[in-house]
TrEMBL record:
Pfam families: CCG. The keyword Iron applies. Keywords: 4Fe-4S, Iron, Iron-sulfur, Membrane, Metal-binding, Repeat, Transmembrane, Transmembrane helix. PANTHER family: ANAEROBIC GLYCEROL-3-PHOSPHATE DEHYDROGENASE SUBUNIT C, GLYCOLATE OXIDASE IRON-SULFUR SUBUNIT. This is Cysteine-rich domain-containing protein. Residues 77-158, 231-280 form the Cysteine-rich domain.
Length: 305
């Protein structure tokens, strides 16, 4: 089938993204019920799906203790991205709570779609264009608020919108560009305290699409203990690469983890949804990976501060 349809992987990836609301949580749940396989293509595929469902979680240990408010009641929304919207809603809830603590007037998701980045990588440019136009339309209808983003891939994609012909009104592309903010940079104005089960070693994985304040945030929140370089190795996720070259994707993931050399009890944190799933799927026994928001204690976000 692949031989007669060169774009098969792209088409399949498009269906996977379009049906994310149903497919992702269902497949992650089913994979979690099946026996574990340590090797082979089936084992790797099931591991990837389980990782989307959360995998073995870790107890959050970063508690906000002070917010240096900067929002001044400015309208703000969270761009959740596909992963948070469909399988990790806790990230969006924590992001909204952090923004509220910083003094922003946070509204619910206005109806954003996929950022479109993963569709472009699969060659689905028409579908990508439709997603971009929808996102701009929903932002416009919401009153052109600040858009806080906590996925590096989504952030890079959204920043690129201003260079596309998306039916912008005069001056609107500039407003869009100025209103796209990485959540990690905003959260740098929050002071955290480490409580509970504090990991012995905290490793920050910098996504290929950019970290935008993640490392600085984590180092400040952990008293300088968070490790990691400004730009680490690629995790190997690569979107549609998971379909077209799963073996290569897994090989790059192993090389990435070898670079960090994690030991049981260590935690790997990142700010890219794809990186979370990839690292979580391939992490050695006893090593847990997650989004940096996973380390933030949700209970402590209820205030008062």
């Amino acid at each position: 089938m692949k031989a007669t349809s060169p774009g098969f992987e792209g088409w399949l990836w498009g269906r996977w993204v379009a049906g994310a609301g149903v497919l992702w949580p269902v497949m992650a749940t089913v994979a979690g019920l099946l026996p574990s396989y340590k090797s082979g293509a089936l084992g790797a595929a099931l591991g990837d799906l389980r990782a989307m469902g959360g995998g073995p979680g870790f107890e959050p240990w970063l508690c906000p203790v002070r917010f240096n408010a900067c929002g001044n009641d400015r309208k703000a929304v969270v761009f959740a991205g596909c992963a948070a919207r469909h399988v990790s809603p806790g990230w969006s809830a924590k992001a909204a709570a952090l923004l509220t603590g910083l003094g922003y007037a946070v509204s619910g998701d206005p109806g954003f779609a996929c950022c479109g980045k993963t569709l472009a990588g699969a060659g689905l440019l028409e579908a990508r264009g439709a997603m971009m136009r929808r996102n701009v339309s929903e932002w416009r209808a919401a009153g052109r608020p600040l858009v806080a983003v906590f996925c590096a891939t989504c952030l890079e994609a959204l920043r690129g919108y201003a260079n596309e012909d998306l039916g912008w009104e005069p001056g609107e592309a500039r407003l869009w560009s100025e209103g796209i903010e990485p959540l990690a940079r905003l959260a740098s104005r929050v002071e955290f305290a480490e409580t509970g089960q504090v990991p012995g070693r905290i490793i920050h994985h910098a996504p290929c699409h950019g970290a935008d304040g993640e490392r600085e945030l984590l180092r400040a929140a952990t008293g300088g203990r968070a490790e990691g370089t400004g730009q680490g190795p690629c995790c190997g996720f690569g979107g549609a690469l998971k379909l077209s070259a799963p073996g290569l994707s897994a090989q790059v993931a192993r090389q990435c983890l070898d670079f960090y050399g994690p030991r049981p009890g260590d935690r790997i944190l990142t700010g890219c949804s794809g990186c979370v799933f990839q690292l979580r799927s391939h992490a050695p026994e006893g090593v847990l990976a997650g989004h940096w928001l996973d380390a933030v204690d949700a209970a402590s976000l209820r205030g008062p501060w």
